[in-house]
Design goal:
Length: 471
């Protein structure tokens, strides 16, 4: 339900709530009329304070036991609690008492929708709309029905009434917003985009609408509109933290790490303890090789939450890149204590153990990773490397040859087959080296590190000369 507070200003309603709460605190037994109690209950319902709404209703019913309005409010509380059948029983009695009451018709329709009695619900809603002769009145009630259904996440039924309201008045900003919102929730992003666009023509100073427009544009892959929407959202409300966050993510996903860092930094200035944003920032710095700043932001995240998995994992990979393998092992062990089954953590521990010379332990971890997720080429290649290093060369080659059937045009796969096969099947090795160098000529250095005798191989030299200038 949408609670309008009977046309009262929100500050007036808050004053009434404050007076009511003071009365409870001081046990003064002050009198409130039915209208004031109704406003107080609606306020609590709007704030999702259901227990407070129930307490206010119980107090009000003692003071006004036969109030039609308070019984109506009771059905609203029952609806919020999901007690639809109990609400219907009261609504049926109220309908008999005062046939045609618009609040009762609306609530009865809403209850029946939530009970999946769509035909009965439509009959109540149709009766509600029939009372309005003028289009303006019909528009208001169509919107009220649609908004009430939307608030209960009944998006498809809501659209029926919102579309009818739109057909009466295509400029009603409330209708446009709810249409956009419902279509967004149903995954129809094209229509949602259209209605947010129309809404913003009517109300260009809504930060939340610009934000939602950005979300929808992002889902449609419209990067230009995504950036524009989030920037407008921030222009309208410079303290709109989520807009900075989403804008930063949009820049990051589109490869603009500098702008991403700038917007994440602005977001963190508003929410300094947000570990997700701090880890995003740290990762951006780590990826560009700025390890000191990466450590700074990972550390800030761990200050906010010492058990944060992302930050612990980030520090493990950071120390690995710094070649501080013992420190890396400490962090990866910490994160594995929290999540022993995550394959990426197992994989990283395998790499760290290999660097520390614990080859058998490394083999166990990398084997686990590769067998747990055979679709991840990184795991396959790392497993092949440790097999080759532990003298299981034929097993490593077989693993790579099997992987070649599933992974096409992978330079890591080709380069390893070239390096591992050279002393066994030389011509096959040269074939794979050629495939690898077509993709990345730098693989030659690693090939020679594994097979230094190939420096004197004329065929290898002729092949390399095709891909490396001045060889």
């Amino acid at each position: 339900m949408n609670y309008s507070f009977g046309g009262k200003e929100i500050n007036q309603v808050r004053d009434s709530v404050w007076e009511y709460e003071q009365m409870l605190a001081t046990s003064s037994g002050r009198y409130f009329d039915i209208d004031t109690f109704t406003l107080i209950i609606d306020y609590y319902l709007n704030e999702k304070c259901i227990s407070s709404a129930k307490n206010a209703l119980n107090y009000a019913m003692k003071m006004h036991p036969n109030s039609f309005e308070l019984l109506t409010a009771k059905t609203e509380i029952l609806i919020e609690e999901g007690e639809y059948k109990d609400a219907i029983k009261i609504l049926n009695k109220l309908e008999n008492t005062l046939p045609g009451n618009k609040d009762v018709l609306l609530l009865s329709g809403l209850c029946n929708i939530l009970l999946n009695k769509h035909k009965t619900a439509k009959a109540y809603f149709d009766k509600l709309i029939e009372f309005e002769i003028e289009n303006s009145g019909k528009e208001d009630y169509l919107y009220l029905i649609g908004a009430s259904l939307r608030s209960k996440k009944q998006y498809e039924p809501a659209l029926n009434y919102l579309e009818d309201a739109y057909n009466i008045n295509a400029k009603n900003s409330l209708v446009l917003y709810d249409l956009a919102f419902c279509y967004e929730k149903l995954g129809n992003f094209e229509k949602s985009f259209t209605f947010y666009d129309k809404y913003l023509e009517e109300d260009p100073f809504s930060a939340s609408a610009w934000f939602n427009f950005g979300v929808v544009a992002s889902r449609l892959g419209n990067f230009k509109k995504t950036l524009e929407a989030y920037e407008f959202s921030i222009a309208v409300n410079p303290d709109f933290a989520d807009a900075y966050f989403n804008l930063a993510v949009a820049y990051s996903e589109n490869g603009n790490s500098e702008k991403a860092k700038e917007k994440f930094t602005e977001y963190v200035s508003l929410n300094p303890n947000d570990t997700e944003a701090l880890c995003y920032l740290a990762d951006l710095f780590e990826c560009e090789g700025n390890f000191d700043y990466a450590e700074l932001y990972y550390t800030q995240a761990l200050v906010s939450d010492e058990n944060n998995e992302t930050a612990l994992y980030g520090m493990a990979t950071l120390e690995y890149r710094r070649e501080n393998y013992r420190e890396s092992l400490l962090y990866i062990n910490s994160v594995l204590e929290k999540n022993k089954k995550k394959i990426e953590y197992i994989y990283i521990k395998g790499l760290v153990l290999k660097k520390l010379g614990f080859l058998e332990d490394s083999l166990n971890y990398l084997s686990n990773a590769a067998k747990s997720n055979p679709k991840e080429i990184r795991y396959i290649l790392a497993y092949a490397d440790i097999l080759f290093l532990t003298e299981a060369k034929s097993k490593a080659i077989k693993l790579l040859e099997e992987a070649e059937k599933k992974f096409k045009e992978n330079v890591g796969l080709f380069s390893r087959l070239a390096a591992f096969l050279y002393r066994i099947e030389r011509y096959k090795s040269i074939y794979y080296l050629g495939l690898a160098m077509q993709l990345d000529s730098d693989v030659y250095d690693e090939f020679i590190r594994v097979n230094p005798e190939a420096l004197n191989d004329v065929q290898i030299s002729e092949l390399v000369a095709k891909y490396i200038e001045n060889y």
